Amino acid sequence: xxxxxxxxxxxxxxxxxxxxxxxxxxxxxxxxxxxxxxxxxxxxxxxxxxxxxxxxxxxxxxxxxxxxxxxxxxxxxxxxxxxxxxxxxxxxxxxxxxxxxxxxxxxxxxxx
Amino acid sequence: xxxxxxxxxxxxxxxxxxxxxxxxxxxxxxxxxxxxxxxxxxxxxxxxxxxxxxxxxxxxxxxxxxxxxxxxxxxxxxxxxxxxxxxxxxxxxxxxxxxxxxxxxxxxxxxxxxxx
Lengths: 112, 116
Prior knowledge:
By secondary structure, chain A is mainly β. Chain A has no helices and eleven strands. Chain B has strands spanning 3-7, 10-12, 18-25, 33-40, 44-51, 58-60, 68-73, 78-83, 92-100, 102-106, 110-114. Chain B is globular. The A-B interface holds A 39, 41, 48-51, 54-55, 58, 60, 92, 94, 96, 99-106 and B 35, 44-47, 50, 59, 61-62, 95, 101-104, 106-109.
């Protein structure tokens, strides 16, 4: 199984400051069709996870542009340019290039 | 509005069985693939089963293969997970999830507790 390793596991950020989460996969997530099957989700308190970023860098409709995803191969990151109070939650990375689809451990974002 | 609504969770003893259902509305059910995903405090988010639009394409994670069965009824816009020989470690919140590029819609989750 592909192992997804997130760092850090906990982030405490002052509103208006940037935040960054790293996710490394144990194998390349680049498929032979040229697509990279890597995603970011956020789970807010009491809610189900929701999709934020598709295929490394494509923001889902309605996701603010302060969120950006980047990376390739095995190294990926999620950046929030200016954290807001509503960004509190647990962020997960996920790969779906090889079954079983696997998730990172989650990074808890808190506001200072 | 897109909605996925799980039902059927509950408390079951080890070795018991349970059927989860997921009622879907707001889009053309038969044109999408679906997963079941579970979440526990210890193991986090775990994909457990996939079913394709054609109903015949199914995949399972190793820990549930042979015990769980994913199915769908396109005439009822519903997804199912039949769980047999339940173990304590199957205790989790179970989500039905629509699959596109990523998992774009999730249900609210159904709690399954396996305990004597």
